[in-house]
Amino acid sequence: MVAAASKCRSCGKPAVIDLPRHNANFCAEHLKQLCRRQLEKAIDDYNMFDPGDRILVAVSGGKDSFAVWDMLIDAGYAADGLYVGLGIGDYSDESTRYVTAFAEERKLRLRTVDLRDEYGYDIPTAARATKRVPCSACGISKRHLFDKAAVDGGYDVVVTGHNLDDEAAVLLGNVLHWDIEYLARQLPVLPAANGFPKKAKPLVRLTERETAAWCLLRGIDYLVEECPIATGNRHLHHKGVLNSIEQESPSTKAAFFLNFIDNMAPLLADQTAAASGDLGRCARCGAPTTGETCAFCRLVDNASAHEPVPVELVLGKRGRR
């Protein structure tokens, strides 16, 4: 992570990580201090939630969701976890084991939803039934279930582990297509409105490398493998492009995303269907939607009627592209 002779900028002790975007090296204790400070700054700057709020953290088994859950508990917030079983073969089985172990070891409350058991489909089957990339069905499913769990459970806010790398990559994709609807919603906080719960991303000031270092230093065991059916996802390509730029010009990602939030996002505040009030209620589940039936209910109808598809078939199809 860092040259052996490097010293921590804060205390002069041996450093464990170099962070070019901060032009500094940090020891273990001061790296954790940096992460805590960046978390609290994001929470305070964007008014994400208050100390007494009930928080529901979307967890996947990966480093970012574990890091944000652990940081919130470490900072004294009341936070429960929500895990959605996606039915992606061994990958989902492993994810379930990591999430369950994390919660049990720390005596944290974990809520779980299994797509196959509760809604009659899984992500590989949904991908085949809809003839769309798996990430589409995955995103629709998780967003709906996070919202539903938060509203039904009386939580004040849903928290996700999106970090600075994630947000910068999504922003790049949205800018390349000038997708105004998505750009207008790409904020660190989305307030509760029109039946949607409040949503927050406390890690937007921390990079993927920094959240991985937090997990290492805190002894958090997480699933390292990426989702096997996300191969070819444009989001991953955009991350790679930004990483190349960052290597030549450290702090580019932070400037790109945070300056967008400060300077451009306010100009787009009224450019979403939710902002214009153009939302009704799903005739099936009551969720906010622009049509008669929400995207999740349409997905359930389509995918649950399809013969189950082994994940290997989806992997094979994607591999030939």
Question: How would you describe what is shown here?
Answer:
The protein is an alpha/beta fold and 321 residues long. A hairpin with a 4-residue loop joins strand 1 (17-19) and strand 2 (24-26). The protein is globular, with a radius of gyration of 20 Å. It has a single domain (49-319), classed as Rossmann fold, CATH 3.40.50. It is 49% helix and 12% strand. The strands form 3 sheets. The chain has a 6-stranded mixed sheet, sandwiched between helices. Strands 1-2 form a two-stranded antiparallel sheet.
Q: Which percent bin holds the helix content?
A: 40-55%
Number of strands: 10
Q: What's the CATH class, please?
A: Alpha Beta
CATH topology: Rossmann fold
Major sheet: 6 strands, mixed
Low-confidence stretches: none
Strand content: 5-15%
Features:
single chain, 321 residues, alpha/beta, Rossmann fold, six-stranded mixed sheet, two-stranded antiparallel sheet, 13 helices, 12% strand
What is the compact description of this entry?
The chain contains 13 helices and 10 strands. It is an alpha/beta fold.
Topology:
Layout lengths: L16 E3 L4 E3 L1 H18 L8 E6 L3 H12 L3 E8 L3 H18 L3 E5 H5 L3 H8 L3 H20 L3 E3 L4 H14 L2 H6 L3 E2 L7 E3 L7 H10 L16 H15 L3 H13 L15 E2 L6 E2 L5 H10 L6 H9 L2
Parallel strand pairs: 3-4, 3-6, 4-5, 6-8
Antiparallel strand pairs: 1-2, 7-8, 9-10
Helix pairs in contact: 1-9, 2-9, 5-6, 5-12, 7-10, 7-11
